[in-house]
Design a protein that fits this description.
By secondary structure, the protein is an alpha/beta fold. The protein has a single domain, classed as Aldolase class I (TIM Barrel). The chain has 10 helices and 10 strands. The protein has an 8-stranded mixed β-sheet with strand order 1-4-5-6-7-8-9-10. The longest helix is centred in the middle third of the chain and has 19 residues. The chain starts with 16 loop residues before the first strand and ends in a 13-residue tail after the last helix. The model has no long low-confidence stretch (mean pLDDT 95). The structure holds iron/sulfur cluster. Iron/sulfur cluster binds next to loops.
Length: 291
């Protein structure tokens, strides 16, 4: 198995076989993100990818999930992705799901037919970083996509029969805009109705460009209590119809861990946040937060 540089995967892919099909992130511009600053974006050779898959088959008796890395592996042309998915199906007939990171632009570049073909070959989830529902925040963080484009990419993924797992980041607007950020994330989630929402809380570490802004006082982080209030406001603005949405804020960066299904668990999750606000001891200690 050949891994190049740091390898990242979503929390729910903790037990998956991770195969790098690209290296780095084709965008690599988000100001809060330092994940792939150590490598230039490139595509891996198909022979190398297949060799890793064959070696994994020899190493592991049972592989139920495969995750295709790095940053936005969905950027690969469909033909190549289909050949990789076919190889996974052949080598790992027991595999139940293949997951992948995809940027909104990666999804929008593919036709509905191409996405359906990926689904039919085993692609079972696409992880999309929305980060915010506010166009101002998306511009500030250099996301490279607008609210409308991100919403369209989520709807397009779900319409192709592939569940979308979408990430938002608490605290990303800082002190100046957290109420707008919360409300606009909530309304965007309502419009896009993804199958899964993952809420992280901002931690900017070097070499993320935002780290320098925080250190220089140009960006003011929210207090832990404000982060919880922001999450509460976001949940209040979520009104999902027609599909259950699993909402999780159980990442190591979060002050309060939530897990529920929207819309049915909305009130109980808000009550959990209220309880945490009444008792500051209910918030995770800063020392235990991490990315
Ligand atoms: S957040 Fe995602 S899209 Fe943005 S630079 Fe990091 S890996 Fe790339």
């Amino acid at each position: 198995m050949q891994y190049t540089g740091s390898v990242y995967r979503p929390p729910s892919e903790a037990y998956s076989l991770i195969i790098q099909v690209t290296l780095g992130c084709a965008h690599n511009g988000c100001t809060f993100c330092g994940m792939f600053k150590d490598k230039s974006f490139s595509l891996r050779n198909e022979e190398d990818i297949f060799r890793d898959l064959e070696e994994s088959r020899r190493m592991f008796r049972r592989v139920e999930r495969v995750f295709l890395a790095d940053g936005d592996a969905l950027v690969l042309k469909n033909d190549k992705l289909l050949r990789i998915l076919e190889k996974i199906k052949t080598l790992f007939p027991e595999c139940e799901r293949v997951g992948i990171y995809g940027s909104p632009q990666d999804v929008l570049r593919k036709t509905p037919g191409e996405l359906a073909a990926l689904r039919n070959e085993g692609l079972g989830i696409v992880y999309i970083g929305a980060e915010s529902g506010s166009d101002k925040v998306l511009t500030d963080i250099k996301k490279g996509a607008t609210r409308a484009e991100i919403t369209e990419s989520i709807v397009k993924t779900e319409n192709a029969g592939i569940p979308a797992s979408v990430t938002f980041i608490s605290g990303l607007a800082g002190q100046d805009g957290w109420r707008d950020h919360a409300a606009l994330c909530g309304t965007m989630i309502s419009e896009a109705a993804p199958s899964y929402i993952g809420l992280l809380t901002l931690i900017a570490e070097p070499p993320a460009p935002l780290f320098a802004d925080i250190a220089a006082g140009r960006f003011k982080l929210l207090t832990p209590v404000q982060v919880v209030e922001e999450t509460r406001l976001m949940l209040q603005h979520i009104d999902i119809k027609g599909r259950d949405c699993v909402f999780r804020s159980n990442h190591a960066s979060n002050y309060v861990s939530l897990r529920g299904t929207l819309p049915s668990d909305k009130d109980s999750m808000i009550a959990r946040l209220d309880a945490a606000l009444r008792d500051a001891g209910g918030l995770k200690d800063e020392r235990f937060r991490m990315l």
